[in-house]
Amino acid sequence: MGKQKKARKYAVMKRMISLRDQRINEKERAKAAAKKKKEDPSAIKEREVPQHPSCLFFQYNTQLGPPYHILVDTNFINFSIKAKLDLVQSMMDCLYAKCIPCITDCVMAEIEKLGQRYRVALRIAKDPRFERLPCTHKGTYADDCLVQRVTQHKCYIVATVDKELKRRIRKIPGVPIMYISRHRYNIERMPDDYGAPRF
Asked: Which stretches make up the PIN domain (predicted)?
């Protein structure tokens, strides 16, 4: 024979411990009192406004100049190999100046994850001419890492062929984008007095 079900009493509330009870700490009591206080609607609301970078003169980035530091994305290296382009030489042909390709830990991790098939890309990424930038954040999602780095320090050019990443970087003022078109490197949003003519 099964257990008999207890009939639930109607409108019975759970008993709550009183805030004045000795078992509750002073700190917890203070937290509860702070929750009860309502915000004053007439009070002046403080909000944080992002500071405008001092390096920008309208859309013109004054921090950009040779030698150029170029943040390289994973797919940029892969597409350069496909197009049979030497990264450093082609960058210099595009900008007519010394270029330092920079590679973050996230991009390096992404290339390593791609496995044996992309070993040539890994070999290029480990070139001593490439500057290695350490990452302090968690995870290895390169797109977020590059966007965050470029937002903080506007001294980089971003080299990518990823449409989504390009779209995100176009929203950040003063950051040029390097991409591959017609088997050569091209640059977007770069002041006209720098680099090669755009086609």
From this structure: 68-167
